[in-house]
Amino acid sequence: MFGKLRNWLGFEQTLVDVPVEMWTRVEARLPFLDYLEPDDRARLRLMARQLLAEKQFHGAQGMELSDEIMLGIALQACLPVLNIGLQAYRGWVGIIVYPGDFVIPRHEMDEDGVVHEYDDEVLGEAWEGGPVIVSWFDDGGTPAPDGVNVVIHEFAHKLDMENGGVDGLPPLPAHMSRRDWATAFTAAYDALCEQVDSGAEPVLDPYASEHPGEFFAVASEVFFEQPGYLRSVFPAVYAQLSAYYGLDPAAGEARCLRQTSTLPS
Question: pTM of the entire structure?
Answer without folding.
Answer: 0.87
